[in-house]
Amino acid sequence: MSNLLTTDPIALQAFMSETIFATADAVEAFSGQSESVSSPLNPQQVTAHQESVEEFIYQGSKAKGILFILRYPAYPYFSPEAEEAFVKTIGALKLTVADVAVVNLANAHNPNDFKRIMSFFTPKKIILLGVEPLSLKLPEIAHNSYMHGRIATVFNTYSFEEMFADMVKKKAFWTEFKSLIQHQS
After folding, report:
1. Highest taxon of the source (predicted)?
2. Which fold has domain 58-183?
3. Which of 66, 68, 82, 138 could cross-link 160 (Cys pair, CB 3.0–4.6 Å)?
4. E strands, 31-162, where?
5. pLDDT tens sequence across 162-181
């Protein structure tokens, strides 16, 4: 533990893949030996943070109401190639990774429950990147097609890997995605 450079619970959560529990005695002992940390952890901070742990692990922001749902078991979000394509794609529509929310349903922490997704993210536009609608108990939606709900529009499309392999899929995605982001409310 002597190489630990932070006791900030949010920073630790970003780098740790497993939940860590500590007793009040352990936290006090650690805080006492770490003089270089400007704000040592105390039991009240640990308790407050544990209560505020989000229901979903995701990247980006929920503020604009744009949610990308994917299922990449081998990566936290995207493969390196898919991430580059994703950043370029949303960038072409004047969006950044910080403007949209991205949730990977392959992450065991994230519930595969559409009602909970809607409740937590409150999206207006949902893009299913290679995630079959039936896996979320949604009606069947053809690829590059929409389902308009009372609250949100769901756009079902291919994963980036599928689009890399087929230029026709890529062009069809781009046309519909651009329309969804620019025109539909």
Report:
1. Bacteria
2. Uracil-DNA Glycosylase, subunit E (3.40.470)
3. 82
4. 58-60, 66-70, 101-104, 125-129, 145-148, 153-157
5. 999 999 999 999 999 999 99
Domain residue spans of the chain: 9-51, 58-183
The identity of residue 67, as a single letter, is L
Q: Taking all residues of the chain, what is their mean pLDDT, rounded to a whole number?
A: 80
Which tokens sit at 2?
Answer: 């002597």
Angle in degrees, 0-180, between the axes of helices 43-51 and 24-33, rounded to the nearest 10: 120
Question: Beta partners for 67?
Answer: 101, 126
| H helix intervals, the chain | 9-15, 24-33, 43-51, 80-91, 114-121, 160-165, 167-183
What is the pTM assigned to this prediction?
Answer: 0.70
Burial class (CB in 10 A: 0-12, 13-18, 19+), 126: buried
